[in-house]
Amino acid sequence: KHMASQSERTDRMCSAIENLSRALGEWPDVASQQTRLLQSILGQSEAAHARSEKWASTLESLPKAMKTQESALGGINQHLAMIAEQSVVESKTMEKLGGTIQQLNDQGNSQTQLLNEVVARLTEQHAHFQSSVNSGTRRFTILWIVTLLLAAGGLTAAILALVGV
């Protein structure tokens, strides 16, 4: 029995040595695979590190970019405020200009009405003057004719008196 057990133990040891021998024979392949795997992990780690550095660089420039953007937005805000103030001033100026134009229009209407009244009076006076001139001309013509007749009559009487009739 002892021999059987020894033989069994020897078989197991031989089997283990064979397994160990096979494992040791596969060791260079496993080591090569692990080396390739480690190189791949290293490449990925370096790529991840490069991406992290890019992100860090980008994140470092963000505050400066935000300050620049804030400054630009502040400038735009100031410009818009100035435009709003100018719009208010322009609006008030336009209101004043509208009032002035309305006053000028009212004055123009008043002057037009006054001129229309003056023209109406002048037309009336001209008609009265024309009537007076026409009446005076008629009277003058009549007086002139009467004077001529009287002169002719006086001349006739003087001629007759001279002629002795």
Q: How would you summarize what this structure contains?
A:
The protein contains one helix and no strands. It is mainly α and 165 residues long.
Q: Would you give an account of this structure?
A:
By secondary structure, this protein is mostly helical. The protein contains one helix and no strands. The protein has one helix at residues 2-163. The longest helix is centred in the middle third of the chain and has 162 residues, at 2-163.
Major β-sheet, in short? none
- The structural class is mainly alpha
Report Rg. 67 Å
Percent helix among the residues?
Answer: over 70%
Distance between the termini: 222 Å
Number of helices: 1
Ranges with pLDDT <50 over ≥5 residues?
A: none
Q: Into which percentage range does the β-strand content fall?
A: under 5%
Quote the average pLDDT.
Answer: 87
Give the overall shape, derived from the CA principal axes: rod-shaped
Looking at how many chains there are and whether they match, the oligomeric state comes to: single chain
Instruction: Give the ordered list of helices and strands.
Output: H
List the SSEs and their pairings.
Blueprint: H1 2-163
Salient structural properties:
single chain; 165 residues; mainly alpha; 1 helix
